[in-house]
Amino acid sequence: MKNYCNLTESSMEDKANGSVDTKSPVENGQLPDPSNWGVADVVNYFKATGFEEQATAFQDQEIDGKSLLLMTRNDVLTGLSIKLGPALKIYEYHVKPLQTQHLKTNAS
Description:
Strand content: under 5%
Radius of gyration: 13 Å
Number of strands: 0
Structural class: mainly alpha
GO molecular function, one term: histone binding
Distance between the termini: 26 Å
Largest sheet: none
Region (Disordered): 1-35
Helix content: 40-55%
Pfam families: SAM_1 (PF00536)
Shape: globular
Domain SAM: 37-85
Order of helices and strands: HHHHH
Protein name: Sterile alpha motif domain containing 13
Number of helices: 5
């Protein structure tokens, strides 16, 4: 199981409106490849990136790394029963970049 605890509290600093920075943990200058993650790894990733409350939706729906890479925008916005604001951030700043990185890495 991956440990994303190296993402420090300061990188998830609370903003005035109550939101947190949505930066992805980076490994060796690249986003991690979730293709071999289990459900717990996906949950830990979203907890480490400031979406602790929403991470339980991935647990409830048993989303592992392979499932995460197959998710569409609509899946995240409607299939996980997450409020729209956090769901948009999760997709745009995490799911989509992880998918893009995975495709670039495995295209060769």
